[in-house]
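Researcher: Let's try something more involved. This one mixes different molecule types, so please make sure each is placed in the same coordinate frame as the others.
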Amino acid sequence: MQRTTMDLWVGVFVMAGIGALLILALKVGNLGTYSAAESYTLIGNFENIGGLKVRAPVKSAGVVVGRITDIRFNTETYDAAVTMNIDNRYQFPRDTFASILTSGLLGEQYIGLAAGGDETVLKNGDKIMKTNSAMVLEEMIGRFLFDKASENKASEDSDSDDDGKK
Amino acid sequence: MPRRIVIGIRGVGHRVIDSIWRLGYASRFFLLTLLKSGISFRRFGLVIRELYFTGVLSLIIIIVSGLFVGMVLGLQGYETLQRFGAESAVGTMVALSLVRELGPVVAALLFASRAGSAITAEIGLMKATDQLAAMEMMAVDPIARVVAPRFWAGVISMPFLAAMFSVVGVFGGYLVAVVLIGVDDGSFWSQMQNAVDFRYDIVNGVIKTCVFGVAVTAIAVFEGYDASPTAEGVSGATTRTVVTSSLAILGLDFVLTSVMFRGMS
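Model: All components are placed in one shared frame. Result:
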């Protein structure tokens, strides 16, 4: 079998195809920012995770330090067990505070880690003790209305007291 | 009058049975193609020849339409997103819609009408001019020698073509959104990379294109092989290839999407 120009064109075609797949993976996708090799897992129990999703980022001081790999409902404690993969380069003290935050008003939710002052660091599989649930808008509005109502009631009560004195 | 009704019912029944018959025949033909494809890998030159015709010659239509689809996506995405003040998310929108849906589907539709129709016409004409019968007489199996290399060439070139479509489309979106309109360059790429997941979006897109490649080329070679050996028969078979494979692509796309992206929320 001898070489033909057709072979050359097919070679160019296959190279371009593989190149396109590589560009998709590295430039368009997030494969370039994956560092799946070196990471450890932490678990946090949250009373309410709001709209948190698997693959959402874990940030500390705004820097992405890991990703959420699994969210499960714990039937013993009736809360959500969130598993996250943290990059090995970042170590956190044992009294780190994990809270579910929202980027922007309508943005996606993520876990924010605020480091504490403990000497020992969290190891693979450790549980984060201090957690803060997601803000649920309905609950916040409900609480606000309740506060407002009780405030009004209190002022009315004081008004009637004044009347009574007169 | 009743006689006419009887004839009508008979006609419907005949059609149904005939299409079931064809489906069974097509499945057997597909299996036979897979079983006899050993020769196309032992003599890979046959596949390379077909790769040239189905893959390399489809490049221009794929690249040009990918560029325009990406540019339109960039324009429309910007137009809608700027109302919410989220114009920097245009990269995310362009990339996700191309990688997940438009890349595989539009590339497969173009591939069906560019390469699938050519495969059908070629094999159908070979049948009409008795070339397939002549091969059989020389103890050359036409399925192994003619059908299998074309099938595998189509299956191999489809993912590459779709990937190029998506890349060129993203570039077209970049051209419109960043170069023409002036969306910020950095946030265009960084938001895109944040949103497009390798496993979830890109691998699923590639799986889709592989399925479409198998479906389109299997339909194309079968229609060609099954064409009635007349000029009219070949033209009818070519039309059926394009229609059937387009419908198959869109139907399969819905099924695959509902399986792949259901666990998203």
